[in-house]
Amino acid sequence: MTAQRLRLALDAGLLEWPDGPVLALRPPPGLEGLPEDRFQIVHGFRPDVTAWERRGALVQPQAEGAFATALVCVPRAKDHARALLAEAIGRVGPGGLIVLDGQKTDGVDSLVKLAKSLLTGVEVYAKAHGKLLWGRVPDPLPDLAPLTPPLTSPEGWVTARAGFSAGAVDAGSALLAAHLPARLQGDVLDLGAGWGYLAKAALASGQVTGMDLVEAEFDALEAARRNVDDPRARFLWEDAAVFAPGKRYDAILCNPPFHTSRKADPAIGQMFLRTAARLLKPSGVLGLVANRHLPYEHTLAECFGEAQPVTEAQGYKIFHARKPRQTGAARAS
């Protein structure tokens, strides 16, 4: 794990933090070894941001200013990892120190190879199924443009590296957009809105009076702001597990995530379903899309009085669910 590798390298004297401010890009909650009082955490994933804030850390969703050192904690998405490395290099400038850490299962090896081509004096420390790398930014700066190509879908959607379906419309979302609940109206929630594809489809109905887009990834939500230009839309950077808007919705749309690592975790999607039941009006309807293999039927039956299969195609299944059971939702929340 990152915390173990970083601490071991510091304790062994293999790595030392230089003087000056340190930028930490997407560090896992509880990471130890960052220099006291001179590090800035930048993280866009709301649950991790909350975890850091509970420890008293100041967290920003976007970096500002220059730094002497930057730590990049490698995310799972390759394009996102490359973009973070580019940002780190740009923020510290020539002579600055770059520290990169990640798990092999998250693709750290390819990023280590890339970093070796961009930095000087590179050292690599392999431990705990991952690698820690550090090196200096050369002068002049390397060309960073290839690391951050525009992420626009062929249809013109602005997408985000930090989030779901970067660079293309997700087939599951497209299927749900083609099978939205009939007579969609009133106050609607897109739970796990990503960069706004489903929300925009729902807003085509003139009967929708309000649309809340709830998304945990800051960059995805910023992309949604560009895609969904509608006065009925509100953009909320929130964790679906604890989202509490103080109201209930006439309809909820959901294409829930089902992994935070390489391994599928249906419990994440099940949590989204329980949140939907908690936030839906008694007369409301849930429109859900899920991968065909995911076992959501039991949770739907637990949380809703009616759960109707609508269609299956391209490896996805669509459900419309009604009559939310608040007891089932509350028990699992």
From TrEMBL:
Keyword Transferase among UniProt keywords: yes
Keywords noted in UniProt: Cytoplasm, Methyltransferase, rRNA processing, S-adenosyl-L-methionine, Transferase
InterPro entries annotated for this entry? DNA_methylase_N6_adenine_CS, RsmC/RlmG, SAM-dependent_MTases_sf, Small_mtfrase_dom
- Regions annotated as coiled coil: none
**One function term, GO molecular function aspect:** 16S rRNA (guanine(966)-N(2))-methyltransferase activity
Q: What is this protein called?
A: Ribosomal RNA small subunit methyltransferase C
Residue intervals of the Methyltransferase small domain: 161-319
- Catalytic activity, EC: 2.1.1.171
Q: Which organism is it from?
A: Dinoroseobacter shibae (strain DSM 16493 / NCIMB 14021 / DFL 12)
User: Which Gene3D superfamilies does this entry report, sorted A to Z?
Assistant: Vaccinia Virus protein VP39
Which of the seven top EC classes does this enzyme belong to? transferase
Superkingdom assignment: Bacteria
